Amino acid sequence: MTDTAVRSGSAEKAAGTTKTGLQPLTFAKALNTALADAMEADPSVIIFGEDVGPLGGVFRITDGLTARFGEERCFDTPLAESGIMGMAVGMAMNGMIPVVEMQFDAFAYPAFEQVVSHVAKMPNRTKGKVKLPLVMRIPYAGGIGGVEHHCDSSESYYVHTPGLTVLAPATVRDAYLMLRDAIRFPDPVVFLEPKKLYWTKETLDLDELRKEADDAATAGSTVGRAVVARSGTDATLIAYGPSVPTALAAAEAAAAEGRSLEVIDVRSLVPFDDETVTASVRRTGRAVVIAEAPGFASVAAEIVARVQERCFNSLAAPVRRVTGFDIPYPAPKLEHFFLPSVDRILDTVDELQWEDA
Amino acid sequence: MTISTGNSANNQFGESMKPTGRSSDQGPTAEEYMLPSAQPVQLVGPSGEHIHNDRYPLPDGEALLSAYEKLVVGRRINDQANALVRQGRMAVYPSSHGQEACQVAAAVVLEKDDWLFPTYRDTVAVITRGVDPLGVLTLLRGDWHSGYDPYEYKTATQATPLATQLLHAVGVAHAAKLRGENTVVLALCGDGATSEGDFHEALNFAAVFHVPVVFLVQNNEYAISVPLKHQTVAPSLAHKAIGYGMPGERVDGNDLAAMLSVLGKAVDRARDGGGPALVEAHTYRMQAHTNADDPSRYRAQSDVDEWVPKDPITRMRTYLGNLNLLTAEEEQRIAGAAEETASTLRDGLNSEPEINPADLFEYVYTEKTSQLREQAALLADELSREGA
Q: Does B370 lie in the same domain as B336?
């Protein structure tokens, strides 16, 4: 046993969670468990990045994995994101499934050339001869009082790059299922983890969850599928990642005022599930898209365009957006002015031309 | 003629090549085994004379003759490709004219299961490795971004962005090492690429993870128009190795014998678990960056002329001829082989490539997204109406 394993206590205790059955689980622990289960299921799954070894990552998402699976399968690299990503490309070319961690959203930018020029393009360049089954995990977005470079919503850069699959879970359950699906996916996945949700908790049956992740009938089903997070009839709130809980809170508040809002959790930014989104908007006739990222030329902008193209005849009002302002992410004491809030969402819903003026 | 350069004080690819680590008291110091030779290693000089080197043995005659043939074929590929660009059959060709010794050595020092990571200027190396020439030229003809299966000859796609492929090489070697495979990876780049961050990160990662990668920098003195002095003020590019904790060596890149010997030794060392190494080949870009370039704007023809007597083919022909290894009949047979390759290129590129617009959507993802299915249908519909 390595020193690391000794320091961390038994492998049982250190390794994700090997518990079974119904239990309270945080978003972070769900991700940690998904990594451990994926490594257990497939010896080619390998984890590396900055501080992901003995420390377990700055958010502890890789906690205990080095102790349980050894230093060859979960290890720290030199502090260089392009190096991490470039090495992941080579390892994926040569039979491995690298799951790399970028410590924070804005610290992933040094890897951008590798992501855009090779991760996204290699399969197409080689007419599918070279597949890159790798996952780039990025703790992303704000709402945690983080200093500059720790709170960027960088999804548009990745979403705008053909060849990448981009996922953003918003629930503890999805954190587990979507990460398992991402690791099994044959193409490269950018996996966006909303930092502010790391500490949210759900009580889940891990046996059921594992069964769903492994069952051939359900495995892989989160990629490309949005879900209705709350049913409603009057308008549709379309959100993803950190904005989903905010949208749900807004729907709850609206219900108290007698307005029934449906909430769609997009989950999979690429591929985008037009079907689920448009079905909802055609039913409700009104839509607001919510996202933390600056709205200009953003994922939210794309969703608005797609909804208008597909639902024009069903719309009773213009599709609106509640997004971050078009400014650099603010300092901690100012971020609450920037982030989409329940009030801002409800104000926008109020403006959806409920009656002729 | 044998000239001895008793250059023994500070060389690395010698006997005590295992890394000693910072704390080791035994064995040579880092300076002794990581710093390159005082002058680029040369085994056959420009006049075809053998120059003795204590550490790097001259490859045997048979090996040199076989590599010489590839050198001649490589030159013919460069000439033919240039001609095909002028005739409009290829979009562009970055020629390795004058660098063929580097190209050939890079291909022949590797075993079948080793990996080669080439750049856009390394077409000759890729063809020498065995890849179908027409598949190689697909990129430059413009009918797809790459035209061969990298797994067939363990040869990565030719990298166009600078130094990015060096990290892929490290990853391939790392994966092989984890599985206990005996694979060596040879990664190519030019002098300009040594200024890129990925060059630094790749060498550092390779050294930290102690993976079997040999980095070969073809220092041809120019990054398009920018001379080496604007890239670095290091004593040599090979000197950079010690900063990463790996040995560096410099070699006359126009000396096929020295290239084979030095690269071969670095590859053997990597295969034996000795870790990565950096080799700098001193050579010269005899022609323009590509056909789109105008070298008269940044260098004098007299500079280029100085390199003509250092040509890799001439000196090897003289050397092999003096030893009676290269007969007139052999020379004729080799010329015939070169013509045959040239004719394959001509025939292949003079026929129209088969392009299929549906391919545009086919390989972006393993399974097309619904959006790509819609777009593919749109293009197919447009094309069917054009055809109607």
A: no
Question: Which residue on chain B is closest to A306 by alpha carbon?
Answer: B371
pLDDT at position B386: 87
pLDDT for the residue numbered A45? 98
The domain that contains A35 carries what CATH number? 3.40.50.970
Look at residue B166 and tell me whether its pLDDT is greater than 90: yes
Domain hosting residue A328, numbered range: 227-350
Chain B residue with Cα closest to A164 = B365
List of chain B residues whose C-beta atoms are within 8 Å of the C-beta of residue A121:
145
pLDDT beyond 80 at B26: no
The pairing of beta strand A227-230 with beta strand A261-265: antiparallel
**B198–A86 CB contact, under 8 Å:** yes
CATH code, domain carrying B207: 3.40.50.970
As a whole number, the mean pLDDT across chain B is 92
Q: Is the pLDDT of residue B22 over 70?
A: no
Domain range for B373: 358-388
One domain for residues B160 and B266: yes
ipTM of predicted assembly, 2 dp: 0.93
On whether the CB atoms of residues A300 and A253 are closer than 8 A, the answer is no
CA distance B132 to B299: 35
CA distance A304 to chain B (A): 16
- Res B11 pLDDT > 90: no
Res. B292 pLDDT band, cuts 50 70 90: confident
Q: pLDDT > 90: what percent of chain B? A: 88
Residue B5: how many other CB atoms lie within 10 Å: 14
Contact flag A118-B164 (C-beta cutoff 8 Å)? yes
Contacts of residue B146 in chain A, CB cutoff 8 Å?
125-127
For chain A, list residues with pLDDT below 70.
1-17, 356-357
Q: Indicate the pLDDT class of residue B388, thresholds 50, 70 and 90.
A: low
- Predicted pLDDT of residue B340: 97
- pLDDT single digits (tens) B180-205: 999 999 999 999 999 999 999 999 99
Q: Which of A214, A239, A263 is the last residue of a domain?
A: A214
How many domains does chain B fold into? Answer: 2
Is the pLDDT score of B6 beyond 50?
no
Asked if pLDDT for residue B37 goes beyond 50, the answer is yes
Active site residue A336: no
List the single best residue of A50, A84, A89, A161 to mutate versus B (max B Cβ within 10 A): A89
A241: left (phi over 0), alpha (psi -120 to 50) or beta: left
Our CA-based measurement puts residue B251 at a distance from the nearest CA of chain A, in whole angstroms, of 28
CA distance B173 to chain A (A): 8
SS3 label, residue B248: strand
Residues A199 and A236 in one domain: no
CB spacing of A121 vs B146 below 8 angstroms: no
Contact B95, B78 (CB under 8 A): yes
- Among B146, B169, B201, the residue with its CB nearest the CB of A126 is B146
User: Taking CB atoms and an 8 Å cutoff, what residues of chain B touch A95?
Assistant: 175, 179
DSSP B159: B
pLDDT given at position B9: 37
Residues B159, B84 share a domain: yes
Q: B257 and chain A: CB distance < 8 Å anywhere?
A: no
